[in-house]
Amino acid sequence: MRNFAAGILFGVLLGSSVTALAAGVFGSGPLVGWTVVKDGEEVCSDPTVDTGSQEIECD
User: Fold this and answer.
1) For residue 59, which of 43, 38, 42 has the smallest C-alpha distance?
2) How far apart are CA 23 and CA 42, in angstroms?
3) Which residue in 6, 16, 17, 48 has a CA-CA distance of 20 to 30 Å to 24?
4) pLDDT digit string (tens) for 2-55?
5) Closest alpha carbon to 56 in 23, 34, 24
6) How far apart are CA 47 and CA 59, in angstroms?
7) Facing residues of 50 across strands?
8) Nearest to residue 31, comparing CAs of 15, 17, 48?
9) CA-to-CA distance for 35 and 26, rounded, in angstroms?
10) What distance in Å separates the CA atoms of residue 46 and residue 56, rounded to the nearest whole number?
């Protein structure tokens, strides 16, 4: 019974973390901690991404 409960708990945690990761990767919004580099020089940090139009915007 303990193994069954541990398996359910592990499955719920794994499912919620994968969903959160997918929202961060495939969603729109700021990319905190990311840096945009062009020709070896930093253009901006923490850009905003719009996956619908496939654009990265630097403010």
Assistant:
1) 43
2) 26
3) 6
4) 999 999 999 888 877 776 666 666 667 788 888 888 899 998 988 888 777 778
5) 34
6) 7
7) 55
8) 48
9) 18
10) 10
